[in-house]
Amino acid sequence: MKTIQHGIIGAACIVLFLSCGSTRTTGNSNQILRDALDVPAVFEPAEGVSLDETSCKSLMVDTRNGTRIVLVSSGQGVGDYRVPPLAYGLKDGELLRLDCSSGAVLGIVME
After folding, report:
1. Measured between alpha carbons, how far is 76 from 19 in angstroms, rounded to an integer?
2. H/E run at residue 13
3. Taking Cα atoms as reference points, which of 45, 105, 96 lies closest to residue 73?
4. Domain spans of the chain?
5. What are the residues facing 105 on neighbouring strands?
6. Measured CA angle at 97 (ends 88, 60), to 5 deg
7. How far is 28 from 93, CA to CA, in rounded Å?
8. What is the structure's pLDDT at 76?
């Protein structure tokens, strides 16, 4: 009887172990990792483009210093943008998430 119980518990542990971390989401992950650093109140679309309620814009600009960020992916009203290296406290493999209708920064997400 003990052998059967150990076998069932062992199998359950293996299934649990294999299911942990076996999937990876890319682009537009819902999880904000942390706040970005030294960001403008809002990013503005490139000259000649306006924000609307229907799409995310690429290129967006930090009007304080001219930094340009490029849209990588979008969905559900948010866009994930690639920024210049080390800008706004991002590390390799991270993107800056913006609210597409306002240009407001929501935080940092994994690429």
Report:
1. 27
2. helix 2-19
3. 96
4. 2-110
5. 98
6. 75
7. 13
8. 94
Alpha-carbon gap, residue 45 to 63, rounded angstroms: 10
Question: By the 8 A CB rule, do 109 and 80 touch?
Answer: yes
**Contact assessment for residue 92 and residue 79, using Cβ atoms and an 8 Å cutoff:** no
Q: How many CB atoms lie within 10 A of CB 110?
A: 15
Asked if residue 71 lies in contact with residue 22, where contact means CB atoms within 8 angstroms, the answer is no
Q: Is the model more confident about 40 or about 7?
A: 40
Q: Quote the pTM value.
A: 0.74
65 sits in the region (left: phi over 0; alpha: psi -120 to 50; else beta) called alpha
The one-letter code for the residue type at 44 is: E
**What's residue 53's pLDDT?**
87
Cis peptide bond N-terminal to 18, omega within 30: no
